What we know:
The chain has 293 residues and is an all-alpha fold. It has helices at 22-34, 38-42, 53-78, 82-89, 91-95, 112-141, 147-189, 199-216, 219-228, 234-239, 241-255, 260-292, and strands at 104-106, 196-198. It contains twelve helices and two strands. A two-stranded parallel ribbon has the order 1-2.
Amino acid sequence: MAKRAKMRPPAPKAKKAPAPPLGVRMAGTFRRLFTETEEDRAHEDELDPPRPFIEHFIDLRDCIIRCALSWVAAMLIVAPFAPKIIAALQWPLRASGLDGQGVAVQGLEVGVGFSLFMTTMLWGGTILALPALLYFIFRFVFPGLRRHERNLILFTLGAGVFLFLGGVWLCFSFTLRLALEALMAINAWMNVPVSILQAEAYIGFVLKVLLAFGLAFQFPMVLLALGWLGIVSSEGLRRRRGAAIVAIFAVAMFLTPPDPLSQIVMAVPMCLLYEATIWLVRLRERMAAESAA
């Protein structure tokens, strides 16, 4: 009889090394993207070779012309959609239910339609042309920057755009509706009920509040840039947390309509972004300390 082959026990599986914590992985990614390396220094002379001043002036002229043409083209593209944009800006009024109570947006002057058309075309064209404007500006500036500087600018720009759109969305979805309800309730309480809203005043009010929210959400990016340049430190931001929260609520009080709920809706996300900024500035300081070691 043939001898049975001896069954070998299966080889033990190699244990996988545990994945590093999320903070360590993010620190490594930041270090690769935003820290100058020896390879970057070796290729520094290849970034932007010296050229006559007249060539830089010609590049600047071309950049300005392309930006202007892009802006004009974007305004012409937006122009046919101006009535739909004006209708969309009236959505907070409809969402608040005030239109069902007889409140309506109406024009009170002969030229109100043309005025709203120019306002919509100007604002809409600027927003639509913004990617092209940034592309041409960076195309002019980037050749003279190092890799980590370009990455830092792109990161700051991307985060700034995201925060701006987040602030506008928060305002358009929640704050404007709540603010209109609160303001109309105050008018009724003061025995001055309002049933007609002047079109120019209403559209201007909506655009100003949307812009205020978008710009307010850029505050963390300003602190992050100051921290990246070493002007402020994470420890200093941490020590002044209380004063910063008071300042944020004070700014929100001036930028939002006069009701407490709108102020809270703006201030709470800004406080959370302030905490995130402290963490990012601290991460940058650790990277700088490791590079100097």
